[in-house]
Amino acid sequence: MRNERDFSSADGAGAGQGVGARLPRKEDDRLMRGRGQFVADIRLAGLQDVAFVRSPLAHARIRAIDVPERYRANVFTAADLTGVNPIRAVSGLPGFKISEQPVLAVGKVRQVGELVAMCVAPTRAEAEDIAAAVTLDLEELPAVHDMRKAREAGSALVHEEWVDNVFLETNFEVDISSALDAPIKVTREISTARQCMSPLEGRGVVATFDQRLDQLTLYSAAQMPHITRSGLAECLGMEQGRIRVVSPDVGGGFGHKGILLPEEVCLSWLTMHRGHPVRWTEDRREHLTASSNCREHHYRITVYADRDGRLRGIDCEATVDSGAYSSYPFSACLEAAQVASILPGPYLMPAYRCRTFSVATNKCPILPYRGVARSGVCFALELMLDLVAVEAGLEPGEVRLRNLVRPEQMPFDNITKKHFDSGDYPEAMRRALASIDVEGVRARQRNGEMDGRRIGVGVSIYCEQAAHGTSVYSGWGIPMVPGHEQASARLTPDGGLELRVGVHSHGQSMETTLAQVAHEMLGVDTAKVRLILGDTAMTPYSTGTWGSRSMVMAGGAVAAACRELGERARRIGAKLLQHDPDAVVLQNGEVRGVNGSVTLREIAHTWYRRPQDLPVDVDPGGLEVTSGYKPQRDSGTFSYAAHAALVAVDCQLGEIEILDYVIVEDGGTLVNPMVVDGQIYGGLAQGIGTALYEEMPFDAAGQPLATTLADYLLPGPTEVPAPRLDHMETPSPYTQFGMKGIGEGGAIAPPAAIANAVNDALRPLGVELMQSPITPYRVVEAILARRDAERPAA
Amino acid sequence: MSMVALTVNQRAVRTPAEPRTSLADFVRDKLDLTGTHLGCEHGVCGACTVLVDGVPARSCITYAVACEGADITTIEGLDKDAVTSELRAAFTREHALQCGYCTPGMLVSARDLVLRLPQADERAIRIGLSGNLCRCTGYVGIVRAVQSVIEARRARGVAAEPDGGRKILGPAGSGRSEHDGPGRAERVRPAEPAPPATPVASIPDFTPTAVFTQQFSVAHPPAQVFAMFDDIAAVAACLPGASLTAPPDPARVEGAIRVKLGPIAATFSGFARVERNPADMCGRIVGIGNDRRSRSTTQGEIQYRLVPTGEGAATRVELSIGYTLTGMLAQVGRPGLVRDLAERLIAEFAGNLDRRLSGAAPAGADPVELDGVSLASGLLRARVARWLGRFFSNKDGAA
Amino acid sequence: MKPAPFGYVRPRDLPAALAALGEPEVSARIIAGGQSLGPMLNLRLVEPQLIVDITGLAELKQAERCGDELVLGACVTHADIEDGRVPDVTGGAMQRVAGSIAYRAVRNRGTVGGSLSHADPAADWVSALAAFGAKLTLRSLAGSRTLAMEAFVVGALESALRAGEIVETIHIPVMPASAHWGYFKACRKPGEFAHAIGAVMIDPSAGTARVVIGAIDSAPILIANPAELFGGRIGGDYKERFDARVADAILAKAGVASPAHRHIHVGVLQRAVREAAA
User: Fold this and answer.
1) Which of A327, A403, A747, B306 lies in disulfide reach of A686, CB 3.0 to 4.6 Å?
2) Cβ of A496 under 8 Å from any chain B Cβ?
3) Do B209 and A686 touch (CB under 8 A)?
């Protein structure tokens, strides 16, 4: 089902480079030759390295910090950072409690890894030597390590000035009482583990001060440089114009690089204090134990349904472990508050209640990770729907088909007022069911497997709000509200095109895909399009890359700027062709009329080098345009996908193998299908990590127990199958080209589909797993527990 | 700093470096070859993979000084390499990279696979690449790219090099040196004075995260055993690695305990207090100490209860020992290993108590360091094994 | 994540290495391939004053068959075995075990002697070599001694090595043609620490077996009376006679408290037995 495009191609054929082309990436060559420039690769004269003294304890009062005399000049504590403000990320939602995160600890530490002192030396090794010589005298306090116990009266307090440990409680209800008499009522507790986002490159900062420009320059592995600048200015008390933030090549983000770091503030202060450039790179231990985490949710959820499997309502209490501090700019409550608004998923239901708690604990702050709250919400809801199917005696797929929003209802406002823009959700589910061959699996299950394993099939479906804008974020009241996205386009004197946008690419291929958009609009060869991204001095303001927004927003902005640039070029071209402007068109990088054609290169040459040939009424803005873009509605695009997994469970060893995996996805119009596929594959890998491997455990003292990648398991090539992809392309009615955001989606549905498949395999044993990740140990433990329960008491 | 001489990308290099400088830091910081990336610095992620004497090795856990005389090739040195060029074309065609951070290491490992395993199918390629993590691509494009190059070479009849061209034994990069390392003066890092322990103001109560209980019987009446528990020096002498650093006072016993887990050694210095209940013939020793070097703290308690047996002539000693560990040592994964250590340590303690009560000296006259030798005594281990009672902690509850 | 400073020597011969190791008042560690010690140094879990690099010792990088055993120098690497650069006396068993250790880039530097000395209970060689009946020659300035593999590892990361002593050679007996071997480990992904290991060498014609349960957080278990596992006798039908309950009881006795862990270990052992019989 490939829908008619609702846009007109500037060059018709697209020459294999425009929207829809599987264009190989412009960024590959340097990265494959070791010539990328990541933040740790930056070399500046006089650069020194920083290592931090971090708290070994989750919760403690600082009695003293002892710095050996010989290192006094190299070590800085909070007492030295005069005039530096703590990081404050305040939500405007009523009842939100404010946390202040000092960039270096003041008085107390509230998480393992919290920064206590900053040590600077010519090399990282020497800086670590100094850090090792600093002695901390800490008085340990009871650690708040369990988000549910943290809500109980009498719990120790993470922030002593608060009355409890709850950042924010939210309540949402639509007529739940009408559902209570439903014949099917299923209640469960479901939980997802705390995770580390684990891009292969950690965070990293190089800070330097340019005396001539009177400007601090911060190179940072960051997704949102303009937001980083705003946050830095607030913490440092500086004018924003005195700060430049540059994101160089960034080795993966996934949300981890979306917050303002205390380290960024510290190094900014340090370079100004010391007068030489300084660098800090997050090492893997810091990433795993001291940085930001994600995804730790708990649900107590009841689903009400009729006998025919139609949903009557959902009642849920969700708790999210927000960690010790509210991160800038997303705040500590985005995750839990999102849970309430998106838990109903792509389904129809007449009643709904959700109460959420964002709980402070003595752990790292949490960050929105790829899929944000959706991965947990999808896990909770889709596991419950399988139980409804069991109760109703239906195939799980059939329960979905009976409850999904139907295409004829589109656009559709759901029970939480999410505005689903377009699509055919049931069709995606039908295709996934057919492709994974549910009937074939059922026959196989009846016969049993030759190798003694149990197989199971699971499905899940979600829709994902992406590129949501002003109206949505103004409601959250956090420090960042996206408005118009802007892009600058400039034709160079030799006919090349420079594009400047404020989002950043850390694997998303935007140097290629935005060039494709420009090609679509102007016909310029993508080889001649240069992208300048992620530099506050070079690009228009942007809230940056998050929320699957960059292609929709920056793509729209590039299209808008190129459209305007093209129009100006067309008018100059008309003059050169001695035509009336209305009688010429821009096509394939040329302005054409009946008298012939003139290339953009010739037009550029005229503007810059032969202005005497320009029309008298030429637009004085010339061949450089900054324009802005917002979709017709800023409530977001809704891409969606149905996932289906076939797994085999080895009940002796608890091992799970994914035998087949199908994804039917609708991301609207695809600018570069190869890149979209890559995003989905990558998301799936992370979803499999959530489902089966990744977990950051803590002990009762709040100690993180996985400090290496031998303990925190990331999926490798043998853990991730090549899925079978099927694309539907329902253009969004509201966006340029009909694009929808798809960056996160791949990671959302796999935990639910895989868990459902595992539970399907184990259902004959009466075993179900309601917790991620599903490890071999948990599988065996659940099987043995069931066996013991069935054994008559001795 | 000592001179390290080796060949990097066919260029002879002679540069001063500390022995602790990894090969990765050496090429990045001394030679500005920043294409070699650090992803984990403990040998798991593969981003730092380079060729050492022609075969892949982890440059993050290989020290430059150990590669004296070796032949190193980084991604920059593969710019014109024919196999790598073929791989690069396949990588870009199959969209085998997104952020590109893992890519240099991935290409080095992929090149090795292509050369060694011309018959590799998809499964073998996946296993072959399992030492290189990619967080972006889901490996789909990478596996396709490598498979396509292997198939193309097979179709062209290119011969395999099953051993990667290596003909000699021993670690890649070793044995190429002309000399035996840095000058004498730099050979040994001067011993640092033992760092002072952080003062511990009070001994708080705590809930142990791991508890072991065990019991044993001795042929002495409870009163005599109870008296022995009052002799702090004697009890300390039974605890492997423990020592007193000041004359003991029941309210405040100053001491240290040295523990060793393989090559990891820590000395926890701190205080303990002793509580005794003569009426019930029970007592408790509770203490706290920290190891400044590893910024780790341990709290522990020994609870004992003496039960008369054999009509009062003998005593059953019921021990309950609990501990909590925080800081870097606690954060080392695989807590099972720490538990095994604690279990052995406590077994040894019980054994020594038993010996002392029976009139024998503890194994080793002085505070014993728990190590393999003292435990190698099969007899002792056998006895200890009998005493081991229940052992409850959340063993892999989270795994 | 950089190591604390350390000194470094690369002795040219064994006496020099032992002398360096035995320097009084100096905390010294041996390094060979560094694939276990390297991460611990980088994490600053270990801070020796002196690193003694033994990879310059030619005598430790030899492998030869001597009579009815293969003698491996401690610095022979996993890849050397995987690639067949050393003689095979085990019907391919050593090659199979070597090829599944960590990753190729690690195997190119990691050594058999280093792995054994590290005494990680989850490591492959400590279990496999015990099953294959290997012995180790340990050397110090005081002389040398020989230890059976199963007596070498005494606990998690604890070996029988005394101060100043190193693993010099590993002696692997030639496996009889009538012997079967099996090696199976449970890992959540390739190269990961094993969560359970089963290593067996069974000779049904001789009625003998060496059966090892490894990766149990402490020293691997060499089952003292393996016939018990097979209903009292080891014959050609051993695969059918494998008794999971006996294995479970052995694990329980060894202190493996969690039933789920025992369940996995028993399953892994059973697969090793099946592989031997295949």
Assistant:
1) A747
2) no
3) no
For A263-285, the pLDDT digits (tens) are 999 999 999 999 999 999 999 99
Give the per-residue pLDDT at B186. 56
Q: Is residue C189 within 8 angstroms of chain B, CB to CB?
A: yes
Tell me which chain C residue has its CA closest to the CA of residue A692.
Answer: C188
CATH topology of domain A14-36+484-629: Aldehyde Oxidoreductase; domain 4 (3.30.365)
More confident of the two residues B314 and A102: A102
Q: What is the pLDDT of residue B378?
A: 32
pLDDT, residue B356, reads 82
Candidates B63, B130, B341; nearest CB to C34:
B63
pLDDT of residue B197: 56
**Is residue A672 pLDDT above 90, yes or no?**
yes
Q: Strand ranges (DSSP E) for A175-237?
A: 184-192, 204-210, 215-220
Question: In this predicted model, what pLDDT tens digit does every residue of C168-215 receive, in sequence order?
Answer: 999 999 999 999 999 999 999 999 989 999 999 999 999 999 999 999
Intervals of chain B under pLDDT 50: 184-185, 364-399
Inter-chain residue contact B92 with A24, CB threshold 8 Å: yes
| pLDDT score recorded for residue B182 | 60
Q: For B9-36, give one letter per residue: b (16+ CB within 10 A) or e.
A: beeebebebbbbbbbbbbbbbbbebbbb
Residue B198 lies in a domain: no
* Per-residue pLDDT, B30: 97
Task: Select the residue of B37, B137, B204 nearest A682 (Cβ to Cβ).
Answer: B137
Whole-number pLDDT of residue A336: 92
% of chain A beyond a pLDDT of 90: 94
The residue ranges of DSSP E strands in chain B, in sequence order, are 2-8, 11-17, 49-52, 55-58, 71-73, 210-218, 242-244, 253-261, 264-277, 282-291, 296-309, 314-327, 388-392
Smallest Cα distance from B173 to chain C, Å: 8
What integer pLDDT is reported at residue B263 of this predicted model?
81
**Inter-chain CB proximity B76 and A33 less than 8 Å:** yes
Interface predicted TM-score (ipTM): 0.96
Contact B297 A777 (CB under 8 A): no
Record: contact A713-C2, CB cut-off 8 A: no
Among chain A residues, the shortest Cα distance to B204 is held by: A140
Q: Are C126 and B154 in contact (CB under 8 A)?
A: no
Q: Is the pLDDT confidence value at A1 over 90?
A: no
CATH number at residue B144: 3.10.20.30
Residues B118-149 as b or e (16 or more Cβ within 10 Å = b)? bebeeeebbbbbbbbbbbbbbbbbbbbbbbbb
Question: Radius of gyration over alpha carbons of chain B, in Å?
Answer: 29
Task: Please name every residue paired with B161 in a beta bridge, in sequence order, or none if there are none.
Answer: none
Shortest distance between the Cα of C234 and any Cα of chain B, in A, equals 27
Q: Do C1 and A777 touch (CB under 8 A)?
A: no
| Residue C273 with chain A: CB contacts under 8 Å | none
Residues C226, C130: contact at Cβ < 8 Å? no
Alpha helices of chain C — where are they, by DSSP H?
14-21, 37-42, 78-82, 93-99, 104-107, 112-118, 124-131, 149-152, 238-241, 244-253, 259-277
How close, in Å, is residue B279 to chain A by CA atoms? Answer: 33
Helix (H, G, I), strand (E, B), or coil: what is residue A691?
helix
- Report how many domains make up chain B: 2
Name subunits touching A (3+ CB pairs < 8 A). Answer: B, C
Confidence (pLDDT) at B216: 82
CB of C255 less than 8 A from some CB of B: yes
Q: Is C208 on the interface with B (CB under 8 A)?
A: no
Alpha-carbon distance C32 to nearest alpha carbon in chain B (angstroms): 8
**Closest by Cβ to B331, choosing from A284, A674, A707:** A707
Class of the CATH-defined domain A297-470+633-790: alpha beta
Structural domain boundaries enclosing C43? 7-56
